[in-house]
Amino acid sequence: MTRALLCLGTSAFALTALWAVHMPFREYPGVEYRVGDIALPPDWQEQTEWAFARLMYPPAPYRRGFRFGGWDWTQGLTMWTQDYPRADRHFAPAIRRLTRLHVRSVEQPVNLDDGDVFDWPWLYAVQTGTWRLTDSQAASLREYLLRGGFLMCDDFWGDSEWEVFMESMRRVLPGRPAVDLPDSEAIFHTVYDLNDRYQVASRGSVNRGRTDKCEPCPPRWRGIYDDKGRLSVAITFESDVGDSWEWADDPTYPERFAALGIRIGVNYVIYAMTH
Q1: Which in 84, 168, 187, 221 has the greatest CB count within 10 A?
Q2: Are 221 and 236 in contact (CB under 8 A)?
Q3: How far apart are CA 49 and CA 69, in angstroms?
Q4: How far apart are CA 22 and CA 198, in angstroms?
Q5: What are the CA-CA distances from residue 14 to residues 8, 17, 46, 62, 110 (Å)?
């Protein structure tokens, strides 16, 4: 009986692993780009060891989040698609170039309701000042983080958006505070030494001659630790790292923002894969 159960368990694991390897690539319309606006790279079907996983989430009903009233967030066109997929497809080759990770050239949108979040060790969420996770999604994300997953939250601004973000995070990780990270935090030194951090501006802010989206909004580098002292949630609050990836190849976007944003991303990815 023990041997039979072991064989059954091994087979189930093998099937799960096979499913993870062959999960279909998913693409949705975004708030900035339609499907097809950003061409698929020629090697988009290559099997690799790491992919940029982007969190899909429902918007808070009392915050902005719908491009079209009543649109189904599981079909795109809501705030989880900010910068998508241009940012993702610019950042992926940067990770290829600057690390030894074998990186897929296209992203993977991840819906917590689908149960496949555990296949993606690094998860990125944008505009989390507009999200509202359901209780079941919060439970799934909590299990993901406690199993060793890593979440990067980016591009949200001001006290009101912080409170919207934390309303969901308090249900994801109850009793675990979000704290300001010290310069000595390992995530700032995993590949690059990032002692000289500054606000990463959006392209829209640059066009307006400023770096912030509200006033006063100084950059905050925050995070949430697990019980073992591992940083499981990294928060680039009041910076727009996603825009630095999205516009890294645009000559009108300042190089200093693109360079810092890519270094931040590289550090966060390698930290997630090694801690």
Answers
A1: 84
A2: yes
A3: 38
A4: 40
A5: 10, 5, 20, 43, 21
Return the SS3 of 232. strand
Q: Is the peptide bond before 216 cis (omega within 30 degrees of 0)?
A: yes
* CA–CA distance, 97 with 66 (Å, rounded to integer): 36
Neighbours of 133 (CB within 10 A): 22
As a whole number of angstroms, the distance between CA 265 and CA 271 comes to 10
Q: Which residues make Cβ contacts (< 8 Å) with residue 56, sequence separation at least 6?
A: 73, 74, 80, 109, 110, 111, 112
Which tokens belong to 95? 């990770």
Indicate the CATH number for domain 29-274.
3.40.50.12140
Token pair of 27, please?
């693409």
How far apart are the C-alpha atoms of 101 and 235, rounded to whole Å? Answer: 23
SS3 call for 69: coil
CA dist 49 and 204 (Å) reads 34
100-139 tens-digit pLDDT = 999 999 999 999 999 999 999 999 999 999 999 999 999 9
Instruction: Express each pLDDT in 214-260 by its tens digit.
Output: 999 999 999 999 999 999 999 999 999 999 999 999 999 999 999 99
Pairing assessment for the beta strands 150-154 and 231-237 based on DSSP bridges? parallel
Angle at 134 between CA 129 and CA 138, to 5 degrees: 80
Interatomic CA distance for residues 88 and 195, integer angstroms: 25
- Report residue 225: phi and psi, to 5°: -100, 150
DSSP conformation class of 189: S
- Neighbour-count burial for 229-267, b at 16+ CB within 10 Å, e otherwise: eebbbbbbbbbbbbbbbbbbeeeebbeebbebbbbbbbb
